[in-house]
Design a protein that fits this description.
Layout (H helix, E strand, L loop, with lengths): L4 E5 L9 E4 L2 E6 L7 E6 L9 E8 L10 E6 L5 E5 L26 E9 H5 L9 H23 L19 H17 L7
Antiparallel strand pairs: 1-4, 2-3, 3-8, 4-7, 5-6, 5-8
Helix pairs in contact: 2-3
Length: about 200
């Protein structure tokens, strides 16, 4: 079952070298992880999870003087066979409330970062709460996209700006003052910073 999982670190080859360390636990090592921000964990497609099971995904930074401390990133299932996780925020996290107390195999000390996958019932996986630092990836990408889209719209519209004296009235056209678009952009940006999901209301 170890060849069921894959790992992508940007700029590196795909890793599928998960080692079975327990009856339902699989582990792989990420060397030189200091500059890694995101990882992708996925099912390789060689076989699905058995019915009713999925995989909880855990991450541990190198801790050469003590056993690994595991952070729950999230999960993969047959219905969600891949997931992107932000790991850069976990490195400096000394908040013990965010650590799971979970263990993999013999808990050997490691000089490398590690990814662990624990195969568990879906009912158990659905009740788990991932480390919030690992979930920021999607939200951050959405905010970047929204801001870039709004800036693009503003720049495009402002490229057609003319002073009122240069405009020849056309009864079939409607005109929008650039100041109105500028005010909308400022309000949208402010609301996006306060609550990235405000548009869902």
């Amino acid at each position: 079952m170890a060849n069921l999982f894959g790992l992508i670190v940007s700029g590196r080859l795909v890793q599928t070298n998960f080692e079975q360390v327990g009856e339902t636990q699989f582990l792989t090592v990420i060397s030189e992880a200091d500059n890694i921000n995101h990882i992708v964990v996925f099912l390789t497609g060689t076989q699905p999870f058995p019915d009713g099971l999925g995989g909880s995904v855990y991450f541990s930074w190198p801790e050469p003087t003590k056993p690994p401390t595991w952070h729950l990133l999230g999960n993969i299932t047959n219905g969600k066979p891949s997931a992107i996780f932000k790991i850069s925020g976990l490195k400096q996290s000394g908040d013990t409330a965010l650590q799971t107390g979970f263990t993999f195999g013999e808990q050997k000390m490691s000089h490398n970062a590690q990814i662990g996958i624990s195969v568990e019932p879906l009912t158990q996986i659905q009740g788990q709460v991932a480390n919030p630092s690992a979930e920021a990836s999607v939200l951050h990408s959405y905010m970047e996209f929204s801001q870039a889209m709004c800036e693009n719209l503003y720049n495009y519209a402002s490229s057609f700006a003319q002073s009122p004296s240069q405009i020849t009235p056309n009864p079939s056209e409607q005109y929008l003052p650039l100041s109105t678009l500028s005010k909308w952009y400022e309000n949208f940006s402010r609301r996006l910073q306060q609550n990235p999901n405000f548009w869902k209301k």
